[in-house]
Design a protein that fits this description.
single chain; globular; 10 helices; 30% helix; alpha/beta; binds S-adenosylmethionine; VC0802-like
């Protein structure tokens, strides 16, 4: 079976490592490839059949897709690939010709294996690159091809709002693929614990990527701009044994973080502190790891205030940080100046896609 796993751009290597770790526990052969055919935000996993023994001692096949949906922290979707193809020159095709190519391809696929006669279906689509066609065109064309094929076996049922089976059709550049989205309409990064919705919250998948980058070893950990608590909560959910502090300047957000932690069942594992990160030394004497999604001044505050805020924060951080820090922001100039002028070294930098932007991420020591 081939699974297409989706995640944020720029964290495919970390997501690949996660899926390798999960699959290695199943004792089945597998191969994992990041950015298959160069497509960003995607990881391909080829996995052999896995089995488990049920309570009556019978050998049963394990759904690897369900296993990954339930355990992954870095992925957004788990899609079972039906087929993929490279449509050379599709970007230059007239819309009708491009859609005809897609329809011809899909109509040859054995989609009836994935939808029972009693089940309803819908097609969700995604498109990226230079094309004359839209993602809505793709969804309609693929939906028609599937409907026509299923009509040979019975009367197909379409339900666009609450389908039993979700087909996912993607055209990225010249690569097209069709699969079954086993995750459903709500992406895995939308965690069920989120009851307080901070206007600038970080995706939980990216929070976990930042945790992977800082490599906390059980030492004390702080998110000094913790907002609704995404990073501390995701760390606590990993059964982290060390001290975890969530520092936030505004009471409303800190209360929200507490509500989220209660809903996640990890409230007791986190210390919630109302305070100013530019006075960090007042709140913690020393801390091993600091990870934060810094204010960018886009949704909250003003952009012009960021250089001063960053300078004051990193000068305080220099007094307390023992091991490593990971910070994510759009404000490249302001953060690099603050990091360097306060005696830190950038040991790793990468760009991560978040909210339509490519955001700078730094590991510092
Ligand atoms: C980008 S948001 C963090 C969002 C958080 N990662 C989440 O997922 O909810 C930045 C947060 O920093 C807080 N903040 C701004 N200035 C601060 C300061 N001086 N000290 C502490 N927190 C501050 C803002 O109120 C905001 O909640």
């Amino acid at each position: 079976m081939r699974l297409i796993l989706t995640t944020s751009k720029g964290i495919e290597d970390l997501a690949k490592a996660e899926v390798e770790g999960l699959l290695s526990k199943l004792g089945v052969p597998f191969r994992v490839e990041e950015r298959p055919l160069g497509v960003e935000g995607r990881v391909l996993a080829e996995v052999g059949k896995a089995f488990y023994t049920d309570e009556k001692g019978r050998k049963r096949e394990l759904s690897v897709a369900t296993y990954l949906n339930e355990r992954s922290r870095l992925f957004h979707r788990v899609i079972v690939e039906i087929a993929s193809a490279s449509f050379e020159g599709i970007g230059e095709d007239e819309p009708e010709a491009a859609l005809q190519r897609i329809e011809n391809f899909v109509s040859e696929l054995p989609v009836e294996r994935y939808v029972k006669v009693s089940e309803s279906f819908a097609v969700r689509s995604f498109r990226k690159g230079e094309h004359e066609i839209t993602s809505v065109d793709i969804a309609k064309t693929v939906g028609k091809a599937i409907f026509d094929r299923l009509s040979r076996f019975g009367t197909p049922k379409v339900n666009l709002d609450h389908p039993t089976v979700i087909f996912r059709a993607e055209l990225v550049g010249e690569t097209f693929f069709l699969g079954i989205d086993t995750t459903g309409d709500s992406s895995l990064h939308k965690r069920p614990w989120r009851v307080y919705d901070h206007p600038a919250h970080l995706k939980a998948s990216i929070a976990n990527a930042l945790i992977e980058l800082v490599k906390p070893d059980g030492g004390s950990f702080i998110d000094p701009f913790c907002g609704s608590g995404t990073i501390p909560i995701e760390l606590a959910l990993r059964d982290y044994s060390g001290r975890i502090v969530c520092l936030e300047k505004y009471r409303k957000h800190l209360r929200g973080a507490e509500m989220n932690a209660l809903s996640a069942g990890v409230h007791k594992k986190i210390e919630f502190v109302l305070g100013d990160a530019t006075r960090l030394g007042k709140h913690v004497e020393s801390v091993d790891f600091a990870v934060s999604n810094l204010p960018y001044g886009l949704k909250i505050g003003r952009k012009s205030m960021m250089p001063k805020l960053y300078m004051e924060f990193f000068s305080e951080l220099a007094k307390v940080l023992e091991k490593r820090g990971v910070f994510i922001t759009t404000e490249k100039g302001a953060i690099e100046k603050a990091i360097e002028e306060n005696g830190f070294e950038i040991v790793h930098h990468r760009l991560i896609g978040h909210g339509g932007l490519m955001v700078h991420t730094y590991v510092i020591e």
